[in-house]
Write a structure and sequence with these properties.
- It contains 2 helices and 5 strands, in the order E-H-H-E-E-E-E.
- It is of the alpha+beta class.
Length: about 80
């Protein structure tokens, strides 16, 4: 079963600021989340209700709703800026 991926507008804006070659890597990683929302490289964040995956120097923060099979990407950006 696949999950429906939703991306918040703010995450879309952040995605457009990322260099093109990194955008393709991030896009591939996000599409993989459709099949497996909790891959081996994901981490449940301690102070937030979200999960995180790492793609090089970039991070994707997302929440999962297993009942409705939805995945919402809330933040996306460089590792130095994402947790601020």
């Amino acid at each position: 079963m696949s999950y429906n991926i939703q991306i918040k507008k703010s995450a879309e804006k952040d995605f457009k600021k990322i260099p093109i070659d990194d955008q393709s890597k991030i896009k591939d990683a996000i599409l993989e989340l459709e099949k497996d929302p909790r891959p081996s490289n994901c981490k449940k964040l301690k102070n937030r209700p979200e999960y995180r995956i790492r793609i090089g120097d970039y991070r994707v923060l997302y929440s999962i709703n297993d009942e409705s099979r939805e995945l919402v990407i809330s933040l996306l950006g460089h590792r130095r800026d994402i947790y601020k």
